[in-house]
Amino acid sequence: MKAQLSVMTVAMAGLAVAAVVPSDLEISRQVARGEFLARRDLSPTDSYTPGLVTCPSTSIMRNASTISDNEASFIAGRREYVKPHLVDFLDRANLTDFNATEFLANATIDIGMAFSGGGYRAMLQGAGVLAAADSRTPNSTVNGGIGGLLQSSVYLAGLSGGNWLLGSVVINNFTTIRNLQGDPNVWDLEHSIFNPGGWKIWETVDYYSTLVDDVKGKEQAGFDISLTDYWGRALSNQFFNESDGGPELTFSNIKDLEAFKSYEMPFPMVVADGRPYNTKIVSLNSTVFEFNPFEMGSWDPTLFAMVDLQYLGSNLSAGVPVNDTACYSGYDNAGFIVGTSSSLFNEFLLELNSSGVEGVLYDAATAVLTGISSEDDDIAVYDPNPFYGVNPALSYMWNETELTLVDGGEDNQNVPLYPLIQPARNVDVIFASDNSADTDYNWPNGSSLVATYERQFVSIGNGTVFPSVPDTESFLGLGLTSQPTWFGCDSKNLTAKSPLIVYLANHPYSYYSNTSTFKMEYEEDEVAGMIENGYNAATQGNGTLNDDWQSCLACAIIHRETERRGVSPSSQCQACLDKYCWDGSVYNGTVTTAEFEPTVSIESAAAAMLLAARASTVAVAIGVLATFLVM
Predict the structure, then answer these.
(1) Greatest pairwise CA separation for the chain in angstroms
(2) What is the arithmetic mean of pLDDT over 114-134?
(3) CA distance 387 to 202
(4) Do residues 282 and 460 make contact, with C-beta atoms less than 8 angstroms apart?
(5) pLDDT of 486 over the 70 cut
(6) How far is residue 548's CA from residue 315's CA, in Å, rounded to a whole number?
(7) What is the DSSP code (8-state) at residue 581?
């Protein structure tokens, strides 16, 4: 990894300090959230342990032929919320001879955003992208900014480290990146998640004991546990602004949050993979699972079923409660689901030595592994299997009493595109933030998109259509990872409806953001540098790298609707298509991962001047290049 820019690193410290001060809107939102949390229903046991409840009178399970009624109702409300924000975004994009209000009068455009896995690297780089798209970020709506894209989006998907980002924002009632970065109770990454007390050993001892006690309660209630239970509890303490990480918080509680009920947040989705014990998976044979505030399940024909998330832990057979008076609730712990999507990191629990301060957690973690092979350390156990007896002829997984899930990136689809390309959702355009570590230098090479593309040609693909993409050599050799690239620009070349993919790969725009996936500690200046780089990636340096980027994003958003109307793109939008769309060419040379190490796109001197100027005032805390633009 190249050395980070020292002058920039010093200047970046100003962002971390400035970000501590929340906006008036966020202060009022936090107050409202605290009052709301005090009176909402959480786990029935008010702890990590699931509790008995009466089974609902309606069905707990359904087939996945369409989205649920609950999701459909939310999406209808979200679309109404989105429309004025999308009009505002398009108006600010300076499209020539275009009236956003008239264009959207009888049109619906659904936007999705997807954030890849990749540990804290993916979380922080993705955070910069999300901050750039969020109109609540100061100066994000100035010339060159893309603020409002988040408010215009209908769906939000995360996987592994990208899900740490999604969980942090969504479960904290759709908070802002600035608040997460500045809040001492969350995103404190200076100490490892396994040594949160730092030199205060007694704090770490108490922390470990609490994690073990939480999980022990679930085990004593009769549920099998896995390393992911401990991992999820640890993540909760770092990502959720609740006492002890909110052991009573469930993922289905999202639907009770004020920001969800008022349609302020996009519909959030988490991705994981199914993998039975002692097996290996690749992109062509995995069963991809989705969690959302209402359901979990898979669109794949190997399952093709969804279960009510709130009643995970209930004993079902072919989707019907074995005892209709004894269901469970509280199993869908928020941290457990966030941990399931990132179970690749379970192995860190096993790196703790068996003595001293770490003994209590180490002993508890190793006890879980009795009778389990080392290849299954990354499994999250869902006991009992909610899909037991469903489609038993299609997969032996549904004949098992436990459902075993793993990190959503283990099938190489590290960007969570699958939920967004489902025909039932009719998404028009996806902004895909790829922060994978595919090369020797921890940069993406497009392999995630290749895996999703190839999956449509096997029976497990469920009839989904994904645009053509080149091989990974071409992604690197043609520079498709060093600038925004669009795929599926001409829908006539597709066999069925598919979203336009706006691909944004991690690249050193202003900071060497290619940290290891397994780097577990970040100093404040590193956090600031990573977020800054993501912001510059999403805005193309507030337009200093590509001065047409803001308007071209608008062209990408309206492109599918323009095609549906049979209208040719404007000359302005056609120029954008010519510039950013992959033209179908491939690279004929040879690019080795050892040779591929990009350099920063924004010169360090300019970046340093900008950051030093910005650090002097809170008002422009995340203005990124606004100061530079007027120099």
Answers:
(1) 70
(2) 98
(3) 43
(4) no
(5) yes
(6) 56
(7) B
Distances (CA, A) of 406 to 132, 410, 509: 31, 7, 32
> 108 CB contacts (<8 Å, ≥6 apart)?
79
Are 362 and 83 in contact, with CB atoms under 8 Å apart? no
* Distance between CA atoms of residues 265 and 151, nearest Å: 7
- Cα(361)–Cα(511) distance, integer angstroms: 36
For 276, residues 6+ apart whose C-beta sits below 8 A from its C-beta are 396, 397, 400, 404
**Cβ(330)–Cβ(311) under 8 Å?**
no
- Single-letter residue type at 207: Y
E strand or H helix at 305:
strand 305-308
Judge contact between 174 and 259, C-beta under 8 A.
Answer: yes
Helix (H) or strand (E) holding 229: helix 227-239
**Contact, 417 vs 436, CB < 8 A?**
no
Q: What is the pLDDT of residue 262?
A: 98
User: What residues form DSSP beta bridges with 296?
Assistant: 291, 307
Instruction: Tell me which residue has tokens 């369409």.
Output: 66
Whether residue 406 contacts residue 273, with contact meaning beta carbons closer than 8 Å, is answered with yes
Instruction: Report the distance separating Cα 507 and Cα 444, nearest Å.
Output: 8
Whether the bond between 384 and the residue before it is cis, its omega within 30 degrees of 0, is yes
Tens digit of pLDDT for each residue in 12-52? 333 332 333 334 333 333 333 333 333 344 688 899 999 99
Report which DSSP code applies to 147: T
Contact predicate 295/306, CB 8 Å: yes
Q: What is the model's pTM?
A: 0.88
Higher pLDDT, 269 or 205: 269
> What are 559-565's contacts with CB under 8 Å, separation 24+?
559/428, 559/429, 559/489, 559/500, 560/109, 560/428, 560/429, 560/491, 560/499, 560/500, 561/103, 561/107, 561/109, 561/428, 563/491
Q: Which amino acid is at 148?
A: G
Tell me the CA distances in angstroms from 88 to 100, 143, 232, 556, one per residue in order: 8, 13, 39, 16
Task: Give the residues across from 429 on adjacent strands.
Answer: 111, 500
CA dist 146 and 535 (Å) reads: 10
The CATH superfamily assigned to 6-48+84-629 is Cytosolic phospholipase A2 catalytic domain (3.40.1090.10)
In 153-179, which positions are buried (b, 16+ CB within 10 angstroms) versus exposed (e)? bbbbbbbbbbbbbbbbbbbbbbbbbbb
Strands 155-158 and 267-274 turn out to be parallel
- Check the CA dihedral 298-303-307-312 and report its sign: negative
Q: How far apart are CA 249 and CA 338, in angstroms?
A: 12
Reduced DSSP (H G I as helix, E B as strand, rest coil) percent helix, strand, coil of the chain, to 5: 40, 10, 50
Mean pLDDT of the chain: 85
Cα distances from 223 to residues 35, 52, 331, in angstroms, run 33, 13, 10
Q: C-alpha distances in angstroms, 134 versus 365, 539, 554, 623?
A: 39, 12, 15, 12
* Chain centre distance of CA 312: 22
Is beta strand 429-434 parallel, antiparallel or unpaired with respect to 403-407? unpaired
Q: How many CA atoms does the CB half-sphere of 549 hold within 13 Å?
A: 22
Which amino acid belongs to residue 320? V
**CA-to-CA distance for 310 and 540, rounded, in angstroms?**
41
Q: Are residues 160 and 436 in contact, defined by beta-carbon separation less than 8 angstroms?
A: no
Give the contacts of 565 (CB within 8 A, at least 6 positions apart): none
268 or 621: which carries more pLDDT confidence?
Answer: 268
